[in-house]
Write a structure and sequence with these properties.
Layout: E1 3-6, E2 12-16, E3 21-22, E4 30-31, H1 38-50, E5 67-70, E6 75-80, E7 85-89, E8 92-95, E9 109-112, E10 117-121, E11 131-135, E12 144-151, E13 157-165, E14 168-174, E15 194-197, E16 217-218, E17 221-222, E18 245-247, E19 251-256, E20 261-264, E21 273-279, E22 282-289, E23 296-298, E24 302-304, E25 320-322, E26 365-367, E27 377-379, E28 383-385, E29 389-391, E30 394-396, E31 400-402, E32 406-408, E33 426-428, E34 433-438, E35 441-445
Parallel strand pairs: 8-9, 24-25, 26-28, 27-30, 28-31, 29-32
Antiparallel strand pairs: 1-2, 3-4, 5-6, 6-7, 9-10, 10-11, 12-13, 13-14, 14-15, 16-17, 18-19, 19-20, 21-22, 22-23, 33-34, 34-35
């Protein structure tokens, strides 16, 4: 009588006739009634079940739920009929230290009882130990990233990620708009969108280390409050450079604290300093300072409203306009003899106060006190003397008026008069009047007639 073989669910597998065996229907040998030597096949079936068909090749005719230990991968697998494949069954291990890689198979799970974390074996090359952490990232020491919910001051929940070190929150990542935690969090007064770092009050020295591509503020100062280095910029505030101010390599300003002064262009040798102004659209040199000689050149008119002191030579190539009183402590000397005028015919000085005048006098002259001529003098106009005057050789082409005494000190004997002369004698030679001031001493006199 034949055997009808079915699965647990009653599905037919095979019909085994009496005295025969069936090795094709499933992975085990099916034995018919009265088959001689059936014991060997029966025992082998038990062995195959016990070892889960351990081999480097899959057993034939697998049934749903059948187990096979793949010796090539050291992995226990189960047959999935719907997927038509052997699906690995990874082992789970719980221990305080990671299992040896020798007995571990790729896909094995290990529950780390020390840190309460789940790991998976990724193979020897996956990491130093071969085990890859699945989670949670926060260990039993309270370090790692933890997803948390924070209630704000209005009792609204916010999902955040907290970064912990030894149970201390050092950073919070938030997606929501700025809010204030209902329960105070040490180091976090408010939570803003993005990454929030613990403040320095709670953790001294707390900071971001590394490169940042952009920032809204620097130490609380917004970016538009800084001067740009790549474009023109202006500021209404004073700029102080304690170590000096350098523009390119040509202009430098530094403070000489020992002498309480500012030094210009002390970095490069023999660099002149030139000041230009925009004059009707053109750059015109206004002041030039020679580095080689130290000479200061003003290329146009110089206007000084206060005191001007020149320790060295002062040269002006154009007009010098002096508004206030000019006080000189040294002589005024022209560059060349007899070439420089003081005043002009159209613009004359009003009064000239001097102790002694040397040179030729041409033009009218009025003296309010004593008038002394020690050399030859020619007047092209009227001479008026209001006080006693002493004259040497004086030629007057105009009228001479004397309200006081005129004393002629130079001896002169008229060629037309051969008389030895008596003191007080007056003579006229047709051109001039002569007075004998002493015996044989004659002086030419100038007489005004009213």
């Amino acid at each position: 009588m034949a055997y009808y073989i079915t699965t647990t669910q009653g599905a037919p597998i095979a019909t085994v006739q009496d005295g025969t065996i069936n090795t094709a229907a499933i992975s085990l040998t099916l034995i018919g009634r009265d088959y001689a030597g059936y014991g060997a096949f029966l025992n082998e079936n038990f062995v195959h079940l016990l070892e889960n068909f351990a081999a480097n090749t899959a057993p034939n005719g697998p049934l749903t739920g059948q187990l096979w230990y793949d010796t090539s991968a050291n992995t226990l697998k189960v047959w999935n009929t719907s997927l038509n494949q052997w699906k690995p069954i990874s082992s789970s291990i719980a221990s305080a230290v990671y299992p040896s890689t020798v007995v571990s198979t790729v896909g094995d799970l290990w529950w780390d009882t020390t840190n309460n974390q789940l790991n998976v074996f990724g193979g020897v090359g996956a990491s130093t130990t071969g085990w890859v952490l699945i989670g949670p990232t926060s260990s039993s020491t309270g370090s790692g990233a933890v997803v948390a919910t924070i209630l704000d001051s209005t009792s609204v929940s916010h999902t955040v990620v907290e970064l912990n070190i030894n149970n201390n929150i050092v950073a919070i990542v938030s997606y929501d708009a700025t809010f204030t935690p209902q329960t105070a969090i040490n180091g976090f007064t408010t939570i803003v969108p993005g990454l929030n770092l613990i403040n320095t009050t709670a953790l001294a020295g707390s900071q971001f280390t590394g490169s940042a591509s952009n920032a809204l503020t620097l130490n609380g100062v917004t970016s538009n409050q800084f001067l740009r280095s790549d474009q023109n910029a202006t500021t209404q505030y004073q700029i102080t450079a304690g170590g000096g101010f350098v523009v390119a390599s040509d202009l430098s300003l530094s403070l000489d604290t020992a002498n309480n002064r500012v030094a210009i262009n002390t970095i490069q040798n023999n660099r002149d300093l030139n000041f230009y102004v925009n004059q009707s659209g053109a750059n015109v040199a206004a002041i030039a300072i020679s580095a080689g000689t130290g000479t200061v050149t003003v290329n146009d008119s110089a206007v000084v409203t206060g005191s001007l002191t020149a320790a060295g030579a002062f040269t002006a190539n154009s007009t010098v306009a002096l508004i206030g009183t000019t006080t000189l402590s040294s002589p005024i000397v022209p560059q060349y003899n007899g070439t420089i005028d003081i005043g002009a015919s159209a613009t004359r000085f009003n009064n000239v106060w001097a102790t002694t005048l040397y040179g030729n006098l041409i033009g009218g002259l009025t003296s309010v006190s004593t008038f002394t001529v020690s050399g030859a003098t020619t007047l092209g106009s009227t001479l008026a003397v209001s006080g006693t005057s002493t004259l040497g050789n004086l030629a007057v082409n105009g009228t001479t008026t004397a309200n006081g005494n005129i004393v002629v000190v130079n001896n002169y004997v008229p060629s037309a008069n051969t008389s030895p002369g008596t003191k007080g004698q007056i003579t006229y030679d047709g051109n001039y009047v002569y007075i004998c001031v002493a015996t044989n001493t004659w002086k030419r006199a100038s007489i005004s007639i009213w």
